């Protein structure tokens, strides 16, 4: 799942910028992209946490 998180961050630079600008919807979008890459098999809560850590 970490590879999917890194891939989504690299592929969605605009959403990453929006997240850093404080737009809450950007994180939800990124979580959705990771869920899509993993075929829905990832735990959304863990994805959310991993994205927050990767983007901090």
Any overview of this molecule?
There is one protein chain. With 56 residues, the protein is an all-alpha fold. It has a single domain (2-55), classed as Orthogonal Bundle (Arc Repressor Mutant, subunit A), CATH 1.10.10.410. The protein is built from four helices and no strands. It has helices spanning 2-11, 13-20, 24-37, 44-55. Helix 2 packs antiparallel against helix 3. The longest helix has 14 residues, at 24-37. It is globular and about 30 Å long.
Which of globular, elongated, flat, extended, rod-shaped describes the shape? Answer: globular
CATH arch. level architecture: Orthogonal Bundle
By CATH reckoning, the class would read Mainly Alpha
Radius of gyration: 10 Å
The ordered string of helix (H) and strand (E) elements is HHHH
Question: Span from first to last CA?
Answer: 18 Å
Helix share of residues?
over 70%
Beta-strand fraction estimate: under 5%
Summed up, the helix count is 4
Mean pLDDT: 96
Number of domains: 1
Topology:
Blueprint: H1 2-11, H2 13-20, H3 24-37, H4 44-55
Helix pairs in contact: 1-3, 1-4, 2-3, 3-4
Question: What labels describe this entry?
Answer:
mainly alpha, Arc Repressor Mutant, subunit A, globular
Q: Outline of this structure?
A:
This protein has 56 residues and is mostly helical. It has helices spanning 2-11, 13-20, 24-37, 44-55.
């Amino acid at each position: 799942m970490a590879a999917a998180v890194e891939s989504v961050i690299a592929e969605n630079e605009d959403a990453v910028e929006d997240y850093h600008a404080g737009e809450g919807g950007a994180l939800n979008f990124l979580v959705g992209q990771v869920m899509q890459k993993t075929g829905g098999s990832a735990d959304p809560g863990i994805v959310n946490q991993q994205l927050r850590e990767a983007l901090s």
